[in-house]
Fold each of these.
Amino acid sequence: MNTALRAYRQASENQTELLILENIGFVRKILSTMTVGLPEHCDRENLEQAGMVGLVEAAKSYDPTREVQFRTFAFNRIRGAIIDEMRKNSALPQKVMEQISQVRQAYEKLEGPVTPEMLAAHTGMSLAKVAQTLEAMRFVQPQSWNDLHTQIQAIRESVDESPDAELETTELKKRVADCIEKLPDRERLVLTLYFNEDLTLAEIGQVIGLSESRVSRVLASAKFRLKEMVAHGNE
């Protein structure tokens, strides 16, 4: 084998291994958000292994020349692998399925941007129940339905096709920042601690005095509300 080719392959393998090792904690952080309130029969170890498979696949296919941060690139692959495993093994109670159907039907009738409060008013559920239902949707709904990251990624990809991509990307970042500022105080705080400070849900709960399950519901509401605001132009 050509010496230069061998060196290139070795460097590529080393980079892939480094990305995997550096991001094991990132897999566990994503998993911590997704497993709060998970049915007891679900095997969390299998879910973590699925996330690791997603991480490995992301590391192998990552191209640093595209100027996208690895975690941004890997997020959907890790989360998608975990969701696929969840859906194989996580049958939800009939009552929860009925609540998901109610919320989905309400969402389709309402004019966006839809808020958790609007869903609560339309379904007759409490805000807490709506948040719990949004959280449960990850088991049965397409990932893009209530996922903030997917929504922003779709906007970014459409921006990338534009000749003014750099300017539009800057505008997208400003739009997201403006929307975050409009979130209710507690939702904004939880979102900031989770994404900016890199805290787990349990750690956030310790900081603000809430249970891990309650933090998970607040985060689900914040992500849904922010996704709607971003999608509808910060209305």
Amino acid sequence: MRRPKKRFQPRRQEDPNRINERIRVPKVRLVGEGREPEVLDTKVALERAEEEGLDLVEISPNADPPVCKIMDYKKFLYNQKKKEKELKAKQSKVVIKEVRFGPNTDDHDFNFKLRNAEKFLKDGAKVKAFVFFKGRTIVFKDRGEVLLLRFAQELAELGTLEMMPKLEGKRMTIMINPKKGK
């Protein structure tokens, strides 16, 4: 036996504010630009909104009586979304790029990774450089520290060292922040 296919029904998004006929209280406090706040019957307030060709929007439902305002609701929602979008665009996301070395990294590999790190810092990303010690290479801690300090010194004009080399388990790590002017 076959089951009937379910039809897709888009969910109606509930408005955050009650508008027009959804306001179910007997009296409201009507406020707005260029008008004195006054307490009216909801029907009278709705009639005023219709005369002006706008919507009656409940702003503060918890007040006694609830506060309403006459405005173009769609325009209000549009402006709210626009403001949220602007705020989101102003936020900066911190990107961290990692550069991995071994304690015995040669000059060519070092220079290659240095060029990559320069590019990351120019793009505004933080650089996390670390030396990974495998097995017995942990005895070369001093080489790893020298390598990371040299790396930080080479990048001194593009970024600032956040912390000195720190050994955590089998990793020795430094963080480099991009300079603001770049």
Amino acid sequence: MRTESNANENSTAAVAPEVAPQSPRRVTGVEVLPGFPLQVAFADGLTGVVDMSGLVHSPKAGVFAALANPSLFAQVTIHYGMIEWPGEVDLAPDAMHAAIQEHGQWSL
């Protein structure tokens, strides 16, 4: 599972130190599963699945349509406690955390 990057690994940290998010709802780990789900872990210990298969294949996917390309989908990272892909496509953790806490997964 990928984990949050260390601020010292970022070249911008030399100019201004990165502020580490403190929210217990921040994402601390993400793993791409077969298809289009993600296994995610949060700072408070909650874990669950985010199923994006419906969203990336939807005619209303918008910026998320590009993620239907499996190689791009696999480039997921964690940035400031959020899940992010190239092109600044991201998922904020609050709604994700709430849905996983209630249902064990979040289907988009």
Amino acid sequence: MKLPNALPQEQLHGRRVFVYKNLHQGCWSIKDRQTGHVVAHADRVELSDVELKVSQAGRRRVLEEQRKNVHAGVVGTLEGVRLSGYPSRRYVHGQAGQTSGQPQLVTYNPYKYSSFVNKADETPVRTAERAILDADGKSVWVFSPNA
């Protein structure tokens, strides 16, 4: 799918973005926080200075209509990306060695939780030092999470 507001890969690094699971394209959609436009689709995304956001109004709509909508995602500074459809130009600014602690898997299900939660113990997670939105299109791993 062609994105009318797509940015070249080299212009994505360092931008503050909102990333969410795109159910139609089977990838992660990256929305520029400054312009509000989707600027890329990615298989894998690495973010720093992370906030895990859930719009409660959007969640209420999901519960009332029993139909999914974009109301939750991860906000952060884009550190690395593997763009969908560009196998020859994939890259990741690997910073895993600079992060303390083990990654923790977080999840969000609007029918069960009002926020993102740690998958292991279901405690809320609202911020983290870093996050990796994995190439499987559904896993969100965070480093140094906070409630």
